[in-house]
Amino acid sequence: MTDTSTSRWESYHTPESVEEALELLQHYDGDARVVGGGTDLLVEIRRGLRRPFKAMVDVTGIAGLCDISEDRDYIVIGCGVTHAEIVSDERIVQHGTCLAESCGVIGGPQVRNTGTLAGNVAHALPAGDGTIGLLALGGEVEIASTTGTRWMPAKDTFVGPGKSVIDRQREVLTRLRFKPTATGEGSAFHRVMRPQGLCLPIISMAARLAVDGDTVTAAGIGMGPVGPVPWFAEAAAEVLIGGATSTAQYEKAVDVVLDKVTLRASKYRATEEYRSTMVRTYLPIILARAAERAGAKQ
Predict the structure, then answer these.
(1) Dihedral angle over CA of 92, 96, 99, 101, nearest 10
(2) Closest Cα partner for 209 from 145, 155, 282, 286?
(3) Which of 79, 154, 223, 234 has a Cα at 20 to 30 A from 205?
(4) 46: enclosing H helix or E strand
């Protein structure tokens, strides 16, 4: 049995502004942690996988950070927005379909009603389903610190399993955004999983395609877990551009993926050979589905 006396925090703060949240983080000087839904972080602390922090700084009560909005050419998702809210937002369902699909398979209803996409991204786990959907869409994140705010590609935030360039003891991931699919664009997501307590994914894949007639003009592919970080399969996407929306072309992308990724056997997921087969089986299906959806918008 876990000794909960060693896994508790002393203070739990609910700041009303980003500035207040940053002040709290500075005050604790590395001994406080930003928390949203807490569906990963709190479980890991309780199980002894992460050290407990002196304080938690809950940012889900900050005005404007629990909203989904449109800003110029982007759909913007506040850090307090839950997976369930993403799944039910018609703008994301229509113009960020793979993100809605990926958030829709995370955990169970209780987890989706509490967990946030921002937490999924900031936690930087290789198999984060919401993260995979966001990567395929070319998503970006906004990071706030005492020196100001900056936007950066979500794919550039990951440095290792559970490790991010975001300093989660001193910075706040405030918002996420992506450009909505438009005429001639579509996206799709699929997860292969073994129902086993937490429904761990064997592999998750998402794709965004832009097509002109039967030709792919732009592409994005997100995958995980296929290595130490959620993966934006840039080389595989580039193979598709300029080619036909055909199975033969999709299989070329599969070959590139399997040449680049590091699949490994896992007693909790599957053998390396099985996971490789799943990539070869399902990635063409996902690409075809994204192309079909793109064609429906032409």
Answers:
(1) 80
(2) 286
(3) 79
(4) helix 41-46
State residue 150's pLDDT score: 96
Q: Which residues of 136-155 are buried (b: 16+ CB within 10 A; e: fewer)?
A: bbbbbbbbbbeeeeeeeebb
Per-position b or e across 19-50, b if 16+ CB within 10 A of its CB:
eebbebbeebeeebbbbbbbbbbbeebbeeeb
Amino acid identity for residue 108 in this structure: G
Looking only at the bridges linking them, the beta strands covering 74-78 and 68-71 are antiparallel
Q: What is the pLDDT of residues 40-86, one digit of tens each?
A: 666 666 766 667 789 989 998 899 999 999 998 999 999 999 999 99
For the four alpha carbons of 79, 150, 126 and 94, in that order, the dihedral sign comes to positive
User: What 3-state DSSP class applies to 213?
Assistant: coil
DSSP 8-state code for residue 108: -
pTM over 0.70: yes
